[in-house]
Amino acid sequence: MLNQERREAILKIVNEKGAASVAELTRALGVSESTIRRDLLELSRGGGITKVHGGATLNKRQYIASEDAVSDKRDKNADEKHIIAKYAASQINDSDFVYLDAGTTTLFMIDYLPDTLKAGFVTNGIIHAKLLAKKKLKVVILGGQLKNTTEAVIGLAAANNLQNYNFTKAFLGTNGITESQGYSTPDSEEAFVKAAAINRSFVSYVLADSTKFGKVSSVSFATIDRACIITGKKPDGAFEKLTVIKVVE
User: Left, alpha or beta for 160 (phi > 0: left; psi -120 to 50: alpha)?
Assistant: First the structure.
């Protein structure tokens, strides 16, 4: 088992039980106690758990170990997502060259794009590309590995494709946002693409319904300050000191 896989397994166990001992994790994963202790130290530095004597406990943040299918996510917090999507769509002008990330809130944005819009788009979302083309908008879809659950094109090949583009604006989804871990996702292959899009964009927006705050996944793709956040409810904590947050209602 690779280091990353083992640590994700540890986080899943701790997340499900609230706490786990070194001995318990050793039996569950079939590795030495010294290996588990090193893993717990690294995971505590990342903020996913709190290392205690003899084991680890789940910290106040909620760890997200897996991701729902797009068909399941579409109906969750749909009202808030539509409000966020409508505002985000209003930020796109004819002169913009836009990166549109795969995800349900970014998908809803397409419904609110005016029929007269002349902007160009690049996306890694299969459904997104189809709907943009249906609106007769110029759209390029990235090549790479297809992730079945989210219907997104991911991986290093897709991230490398983005190096050829210079976007005026990027609109991205996230699985979690915390002050210290920034924006995160459970999939490293998806994180490569999100990070590349932010690096190639003049302005980046993360579209996040209120349930995303205080949650963290295994791979961070950007720090808080790298994107403006569009959300439906004002988050707790010091997020407003770290970046621009637009609360839409």
Answer: alpha
Q: Residue 1 and residue 3: Cα distance in Å, rounded? A: 7
Residues 127-143 have a mean pLDDT of 96
Mean of the pLDDT values across residues 189-208? 97
Contacts of 76 (CB under 8 A, 6+ apart): 68, 104, 211
Token representation of residue 77:
């917090």
Tokens of 87: 């505002």
Token pair recorded at residue 178: 């915390």
- Residue intervals of the chain classified under CATH 3.40.50.1360 are 70-247
Closest listed residue to residue 174, CA positions, set 101, 107, 237, 238: 101
Mean model confidence pLDDT for the chain: 88
pTM of the model: 0.75
**Residue 58: its pLDDT value, please?**
66
Task: Give the pairing type, strands 120-123 and 97-100.
Answer: parallel
Angle between helices 3-17 and 22-29 (to 10 degrees): 130
Where do you find CATH 1.10.10.10 in the chain?
Answer: 3-60
Domain 70-247 -> CATH class: alpha beta
Pairing mode of beta strands 152-154, 97-100: unpaired
Q: What secondary structure letter does DSSP report for 166?
A: -
The CATH fold assigned to 3-60 is Arc Repressor Mutant, subunit A (1.10.10)
